[in-house]
Amino acid sequence: MARKVSRRLQELQSKVENRAYAPLEALELLKETATAKFPESAEAHIRLGIDPKYTDQQLRTTVALPKGTGQTVRVAVIARGEKVTEANTAGADIVGSEELINEIQGGMMDFDVLIATPDVMPQVAKLGRLLGPRGLMPSPKGGTVTFDIAQAISDFKAGKLEFRADRTGIVHVMFGKAAFSAEDLLINLKALQETIDRNRPSGAKGRYWRSVYVAATMGPSIEVDVNALRDLKLTDAA
């Protein structure tokens, strides 16, 4: 059964033409269609020419959004000894060792990012079934398995995000708030595009970028001209 589309969304969809928009124009339209009664996020949905069931076609990495995420990021750290003190000093929201692992096993998920030191990863591994589906499992690729705890906490609180392509080869990323200026959203979106290009999987064949859509949380999808985004120089976006 087809999902009923609300009148509000129908009206917003009527503002979006069936074409690929120039990047800045698309983001201005995203802001115009963010009419929900709560502060909406800006989302990007990027279809890539990859098949993640092959290990050499998987994409999992991090992006540092120059204009931040617009969100308060809650960071949890699993560590031992002096690294626990370092994490507390660096501003982690939740810090612990085996007792924190037990709390998470019991269902405590009051965090957005989980960082672990390499020496506790054998114990953290048993959380894989819980954390994996939520995209919260620490990984070296994601910058969340490290002894440089203070730097990692600082990076993630400042706007660093981990993302991955889902099993259909689509990347879903929140890249700011709809309340940001279109210019700031463009700077963040450009950083995301450059990160995806820089981390192109070795097994990706043929056309890498298939489509890019942006939307506010409760708004309609707006297609972005992929080539215009990739050709854009950041000096143009600044």
Explain this structure.
By secondary structure, this protein is an alpha/beta fold. It is 33% helix and 20% strand. Helix 2 crosses helix 8 (182-198). The chain starts with 6 loop residues before the first helix and ends with a helix. The mean pLDDT is 92.
Describe the protein's topology.
Blueprint: H1 7-13, H2 23-32, E1 41-48, E2 60-64, E3 75-78, H3 82-89, E4 94-96, H4 98-105, E5 113-116, H5 121-124, H6 128-131, H7 149-158, E6 160-164, E7 170-177, H8 182-198, E8 209-216, E9 222-224, H9 226-231, H10 234-237
Parallel strand pairs: 3-4, 3-5
Antiparallel strand pairs: 1-7, 1-8, 2-6, 8-9
Shape: globular
Mean pLDDT: 92
Low-confidence stretches: none
Query: Residue share in helices?
Result: 25-40%
**Number of helical stretches of at least 4 residues:** 10
Largest sheet: 4 strands, antiparallel
First and last CA, distance: 45 Å
